[in-house]
Amino acid sequence: MHRLNDDYEALRKTVEEFARDVVAPVIGDYYERCEFPYGIVRRMGAMGLFGLPIPEEQGGMGGDYFALCLVLEELARVDSSVAITVEAAVSLGAMPLFRFGTAEQRERWLPKLAAGELLGAFGLTEPGGGSDAAGGMRTTARLEDGQWVINGTKAFITNAGTDITGFVGVAAITGTREDGKPEISTILVPAGTPGFTVSKKYSKVGWSASDTRELSFDDCRVPEENLLGTRGRGYAQFLQTLDEGRVAIAALSVGLAQGCVDESLRYVREREAFGHPIGHYQAIQFKIADMEIRTHTARLAYYHAAEKMLAGEPFKREAAIAKLVASNAAMDNAREATQIFGGYGFMNEYPVGRFYRDAKILEIGEGTSEVQRMLIARELGLSSL
């Protein structure tokens, strides 16, 4: 896995060129306007990027999750808003439907999701519940005359309010388990369903060209057959999805970290100070060397996690390690790249300014750094002491 085969390398190279030639020249303007890049999304859909891990018979490319990770890394070398749009659409939108949906649900949604014609979203987080999503959940769904009646609010939901959003998978309390804990199930709510309100876009520090919304449900009714997977298994299903998603976010983080190295190498050859390009000075050389070390180490971590995942082996610990190491690398590299660029690094017109704004959320989303450490400690057996 550490040496890419010909197919993986061809995919990586294709997306690298697309990111450089198509995304890079225009994404800064989208970012400044906080505008969703529909044209770029259409082109990525035509390339099959949204359908990489989906079987061909269901409209996908018949690839695997590692191929998706390579795509995310190359996109994030240029821009994380575009990368997270793909990551969330596939990991949180299409994959739960592919893994847990009925034949009818997959037939209705998967081909258009795989083509990038529609985006799926997942509604788990709530205003009062982040890391403790299950304990903080207040959204409910009750069965009434063959329909689920949903009430509640979701927060920080990616891809939930675009013009091409097809549905949101909503995690909701649907009853009480025998042990007294809430029974959590996932229900598909198509966009435009009465009682389903999408709030205006958040004003965010970063990922400004991606779509993130708060959602509310007021007696929102959908058919009983919109249940995704098994009743009462909604949270367990999401935890399985989240382990895969952490590998994907690690790949995205590595891309951002690599982008910081790329931009810094270019800049230190052009920028002069005290009679020399600033790359002449050992202080700058050491900064970039450390950035490269962090990036390389993080890439190996997510490659290893992906290798175990594709082999069908347990990979929860490796996914947490990869996500933690890679998000730290992204944040550290973004800070150092901004320092190397000096005043220009504080300007949004330069990619490192966007990288700096985008990096912090990688230590928060899909499980905070603290949660990753908890998971690693638990996998080492320390939680039972």
Automatic annotation (TrEMBL):
PANTHER family in the record: ACYL-COA DEHYDROGENASE, ISOVALERYL-COA DEHYDROGENASE, MITOCHONDRIAL-RELATED
Keyword NADP in annotation: no
Pfam families named in the record: Acyl-CoA_dh_1, Acyl-CoA_dh_M, Acyl-CoA_dh_N
Protein family (similarity comment): Belongs to the acyl-CoA dehydrogenase family.
Keywords from the UniProt entry: FAD, Flavoprotein, Oxidoreductase
Domain Acyl-CoA oxidase/dehydrogenase middle residue range list: 121-220
SUPFAM superfamilies, per the entry: Acyl-CoA dehydrogenase C-terminal domain-like, Acyl-CoA dehydrogenase NM domain-like
Cofactor or coenzyme needed: FAD
Domain Acyl-CoA dehydrogenase/oxidase C-terminal: 232-380
Organism (species): Sinosporangium album
Ranges where the Acyl-CoA dehydrogenase/oxidase N-terminal domain occurs: 6-117
Gene Ontology molecular function, alphabetical: acyl-CoA dehydrogenase activity; flavin adenine dinucleotide binding
The name this protein goes by in its record: Acyl-CoA dehydrogenase
